[in-house]
Predict the 3D structure of the following.
Amino acid sequence: MGGVATRAEQLLGVSVVATTPVAGGDICTSTRLRLSDGRSALIKTRPHAPKDLFVREAEGLTWLAEAGGAPVPPVLGVSQECLVLAWVEHGRAGGDAAERFGRALASTHASGSETFGAPIDAYIGLAPLPNTSAATWTEFFVSRRVMPYVKAAHDRGSLTGDEARVIEQLMHRIEEFAGPPEPPSRVHGDLWSGNLIWGHDDAVHLIDPAAHGGHRETDLAMLTLFGTPHLQRILDAYDESAPLAEGWQARAPLHQLHPLLVHALMFGSGYGVRAAAAAQAVLDGTAGRDS
């Protein structure tokens, strides 16, 4: 079983009796562990990972779990080399579970944050995620989320000068498009379908967060960007539980700028084109319209 089992045993203080590779994920290697005390766990590893990658992820998971809303796998152990979580048995993506998740996510958001941002910086994938706090969400979004990634994507050649200028123009005018102010929400920060586990317990569990105090519409916009099973039932249940400000659908492309720029940085210029198009749609007032 090798090094993975040894790391887990050192952290957990119990023997590993079997290991099974887990498919999925392009950042870390995931392995299911069967422990001598009858439990199962998941261990995540990555050679030469940033030294605080797993610690930051564990802190984000714990912070989300403290909200008592959407369930999060308990952190069993963490070190610079790995993260060990309680195993979540996968189940079917059902509509009733989707509705429960929508309400649970609203509860997570409502638990709030002391500030926009977080006490520590983090990661989204392997990209650094600056979290220095800001007085308003618009300040936080422009200076901590969008503009650092505009520069990084442009420097890497994934965003042209013209595309960068469209996004910069929107950031200069963000107060016109941001909607009514809201207090900081406790957000997942990277809420695409791959970071949801539809559990055998008929609950949807959150994994792989980029957690921070942010705007709740950001999580919903991320779900919408890449799609997820029973999306409309999730959104409807959320809105029924915690009504969203008028026009939130039209603001989704604004909130999607950050994940699109992260993807441009990681996966190339196709996402840079999409980011600029989203910014232009917001500026033109066409965002959120049915095609």
Notes: The chain has two domains: 2-86, 95-284. Residues 15 and 36 are 5 Å apart (CA to CA). The first helix runs from residue 2 to 12. The two ends are 53 Å apart (CA to CA).
